[in-house]
Structure to design on (177 residues):
């Protein structure tokens, strides 16, 4: 296998993993899972689903890279950039569509797939670079990203990105509009 083949495999693995992670908090409601997986049907919680799927799949990807002895550099930094950039790319593409057309399931899946595809391309190039010696930055970045996600899960701003339109509530809190 080559790095390019691993990244193509990862694209589909991350996409499929999103379907599983969508329901993990409902199946195992606890504080830890609330930080990593969606606690409601808001746009923000679906962003968490995507980033956590990328993070989880990256662990498997790491072992695949080792197993096939594929040269790569900057793995942790790549994962941090991949997870962070996925949020930005998803929101940039999704929010205008949501604003004009609302939530349409097939469009949501297409935007999710495009977002994961784009960040896998970026990840491929970061893994192909010479060593940048920024792995510590990547670890700190991933930890900070999930601290922010936890804060926004328990204390979301009253903004439509954080509103669960199904339950008419914000975050994990039970307060209603």
């Amino acid at each position: 296998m080559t790095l390019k083949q691993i990244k193509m495999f990862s694209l589909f693995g991350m996409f499929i993993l999103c379907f599983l992670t969508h329901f993990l908090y409902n199946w195992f409601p606890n504080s830890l899972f609330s930080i990593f997986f969606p606690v409601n049907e808001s746009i923000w919680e679906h962003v968490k689903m995507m980033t956590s799927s990328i993070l989880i799949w990256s662990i498997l990807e790491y072992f695949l890279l080792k197993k096939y002895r594929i040269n790569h550099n900057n793995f942790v930094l790549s994962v941090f950039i991949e997870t962070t950039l996925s949020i930005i790319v998803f929101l940039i593409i999704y929010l205008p569509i949501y604003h004009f057309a609302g939530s349409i399931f097939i469009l949501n899946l297409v935007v999710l797939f495009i977002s994961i595809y784009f960040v896998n391309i970026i990840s491929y190039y970061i893994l192909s670079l010479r060593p940048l010696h920024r792995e510590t930055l990547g670890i700190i970045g991933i930890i900070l990203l999930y601290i922010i996600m936890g804060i926004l899960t328990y204390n979301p701003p009253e903004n439509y990105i954080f509103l669960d339109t199904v339950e008419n509530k914000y975050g994990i809190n039970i307060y209603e509009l």
